[in-house]
Specification:
The chain is an alpha/beta fold. It is built from twelve helices and twelve strands. A hairpin with a 7-residue loop joins strand 11 and strand 12. The model has no long low-confidence stretch (mean pLDDT 96). The structure holds 1,4-dihydronicotinamide adenine dinucleotide and magnesium ion (MG). 1,4-dihydronicotinamide adenine dinucleotide binds next to helix 4. It comes from Vreelandella zhuhanensis.
């Protein structure tokens, strides 16, 4: 059985790192005899918008819904199209309509990468942030009244449904159960946010009862952010609401070095819809067209995609190839953002060759 993958490169360096992501995926698919079928789409980019007046065709949902996964580069080119139009018109549509309620980001200190935290070596930082991706603080419930007067008032409500909270917690517990340390940390703020956050804590406790093998702890979000920096070795799987998860999923990868290598996944765990795999970085207009973008974020996203599709060994092999090439420290291969003199292609080729070798 073949996996059907929709490929959307998007804008800027998205178009430069996607080919390297595909190169690595093809190499690992060949080695493990996995059938991957790629189909490329030109929508979801600012050039498509300039031509058609919209980011996506009207039937995008129909066109994409039966794929097994979406492999996305990056979207956005503020000089051509305002960011709120390009992002809301593409990526955020996919996340919502495909009910990708898990946003998953690994935070792993890789060999050869100089992280911002002193004295940490590979192995010290290796955890996941699991973010709720559909409700919580990012709701459209609220409004504005008496605009422009002394009585001006704005309200935006947090929405937590039992379904929404339980399903992200279940995913996080299941993920923790697959990891050697079997540890789950919940981000809360039940001392200040006195209705929704105690509810979140309550659901964590209820879920924990079904996973006696998992060690559970919780921190208020303020001290939790501090502990990401002070004690990143404490964490294994960290789960948070939409807002807290948003903050932690930027902070976590930042604690492990460059944005050029960080991957992410937007997942619909039931597989009712395709999940989406993309690097954390954007289209990087400042370096686009120079051929120096780091392709590792895109390639690592490909590894997350393989894992999601059930090919754990292939995914591990891909990550190990990334680690091996980083560890080599070969300046001719590495891109400038990680201290090398190489190009997007030299780094991408080296990783693919390591897989084939
Ligand atoms: P950015 O992530 O594109 O760039 C931030 C900085 O990191 C830049 O200096 C860039 O050169 C560098 N950088 C990023 N990726 C790199 C890589 N692979 N290798 C080496 N250096 C890299 O963020 P920025 O500049 O805020 O946004 C640019 C555009 O991208 C905007 O339109 C924004 O909306 C969009 N964006 C899209 C995202 C997505 O598609 N998921 C995520 C973030 C931003
Ligand atoms: Mg963010």
């Amino acid at each position: 059985m073949s996996h059907r993958i929709a490929v959307i490169a998007g804008d800027g360096i998205g178009t430069e790192v996607i080919p390297e992501g595909l190169r690595a995926l093809k190499a690992v698919a060949e080695r493990f005899d996995i059938a991957l079928e790629f189909q490329t789409f030109d929508f979801g980019s600012c050039d498509y918008y300039l031509e058609h007046g919209k980011m996506l065709p009207d039937d995008w949902f129909e066109q994409l819904k039966d794929f097994d996964a979406l492999f996305y580069g990056a979207v956005g080119w503020p000089e051509k199209v305002p960011d709120h139009i390009s992002l809301w018109g593409s990526l955020l549509q996919f996340r919502r309509r495909f009910d990708q309620y898990i946003n998953l980001r690994p935070c792993k200190l890789m060999p050869g990468i100089k992280g911002p935290l002193a004295g940490r070596k590979p192995g010290d930082i290796d955890f996941y942030v699991v973010r709720e991706n559909t409700e919580g603080e990012y709701s459209s419930v609220g409004g504005k009244m008496f605009e422009g007067t002394e009585r001006e008032v704005v309200i935006q409500d947090t929405i937590m449904t039992r379904t929404g909270v339980d399903r992200v917690l279940k995913y996080a517990f299941e993920l923790a159960a697959t990891r050697p340390r079997k540890k789950l940390t919940s981000a809360t703020k039940s001392n200040g946010i006195s209705i929704t956050m105690p509810y979140w804590d309550e659901r964590v406790e209820a879920m924990a009862a079904g996973y006696p093998e998992i060690a559970v702890d919780k921190f208020h979000i303020d001290i939790l952010t501090a502990n990401f920096v002070l004690h990143p070795d404490w964490f294994d799987v960290v789960v948070g609401s939409n807002l807290f998860g948003d903050i932690l999923s930027d902070l976590g990868p930042a604690c492990t070095g460059t944005i050029g290598i960080a991957p992410s996944a937007n997942i619909n765990p039931e597989g009712n819809f395709p999940s989406l795999f993309e690097p954390v970085h954007g289209s990087a207009p400042d370096i686009a067209g120079k051929g120096i973008a780091n392709p590792i974020g895109q390639i690592w996203s490909g590894a997350m995609m393989l894992e999601h599709l059930g090919h754990q060994e292939a995914a591990d092999t891909l990550v190990k190839a990334i680690e091996a090439v980083l560890e080599s420290g070969d300046a001719q291969l590495l891109t400038p953002d990680i201290g090398g003199k190489g190009t997007t292609q030299s780094l991408g080729r080296a990783i693919a060759e390591h897989i084939t070798a």
